[in-house]
Amino acid sequence: MVRVFPADNFGPKSNVMDRPLIAIARGGYSGESVISHQSAARMLEVLDRSVYDPVLLTIDRSGWSASTPEGEPLVLDRGSLSVDRGSGAEQVRMVLIAIHGSPGEDGRLQGFLDLLGIPYQTGGVLNTSLTFSKHTTTALLRQLGHPVAGSMLLHKDLPMDLPAIAQEVGIPCFVKPDRSGSSLGISRVDSEEALGSAIAKAFDEDDLVLVEAAMKGRELTCGVVELDGRVIALPLCEVVTSHSFFDFEAKYHAADTQEIVPAPVPEEVARECQERSVRIYRDLDCRGLVRIDHIWGEHGIGTIEVNTTPGFTAASIVPRMLAASDLGEAEVVNGMVKDALRRAGQPSER
Q1: What pTM, to 2 d.p., does this model score?
Q2: For the segment 110-140, what is each residue's pLDDT rounded down to a tens digit?
Q3: CA–CA distance from 272 to each of 36, 174, 250, 275, 276 (Å)?
Q4: Domains and CATH numbers, the chain
């Protein structure tokens, strides 16, 4: 005898007739996890709960876990990315990625979600894996005609000739872990004697290290976001710090760091920087909210870095840019969720 059962007796419930279940992913495998938790908390705060139903998804080296916004643990099926809140498995419909560093900014989480068919707001696997490597990003931008600093890549297991490195790149220079964010492990080197220790420090963070010529000038950063098919450049921010560069301490703890929005630069410089940032956003096939860092000096504007999952904390730059724009944090976060669901062919509202 053939028996026909209602489809929803099996597998996770889809929430299609209710508010879409949105997982805010936080944590990660790097020293940026503390910042990630703060970014996720802010996204949760501005997410419209009359439209979306949020849960928190924590990913760290101890494993994956889910919880309610109030912190109550939930049963998580990692294989399907569904949660049980007491009435059976419910399917996560979209993931807001707030993880800075691996696995949220290097394509790993994006690849997993692609396999499950679950949309997210950031760029895809190719975009995030490429931009997570400073060397690859710089090489690609150079090939596309965007001005960048001269640099060379070092491998931990290969011999190094420090005088040759200093000769090729020049002093002063910056030494950076190739795959790390929030300026972790980065040093400014002002003498050849300091180069070796700076490289060793960077190798503590990554097996690949980028040595990059220092561009002289003022540091300008530009947020770019795509909402409803429009790519929008946010007001520029100028970073002014007494530190030798905008490192982790200067970003999150230094009292004398100034992040001036809008940046006090000539209108034509602001326009060029915003237009450059939008071109890079499109050239690299970015998506969602991105921050692109530049140096403006006597030789024009040179690009330093592309951040595909920028910080969203009270101390982060992007919320200040949004405050100075016609957009608000809530409009951007909810808009990115809506766009991701629409791209996946899912209803974004009840």
Answers
A1: 0.89
A2: 999 999 999 999 999 999 999 999 999 999 9
A3: 31, 25, 27, 5, 6
A4: 7-121 (3.40.50.20), 130-146+217-308 (3.30.470.20), 151-213 (3.30.1490.20)
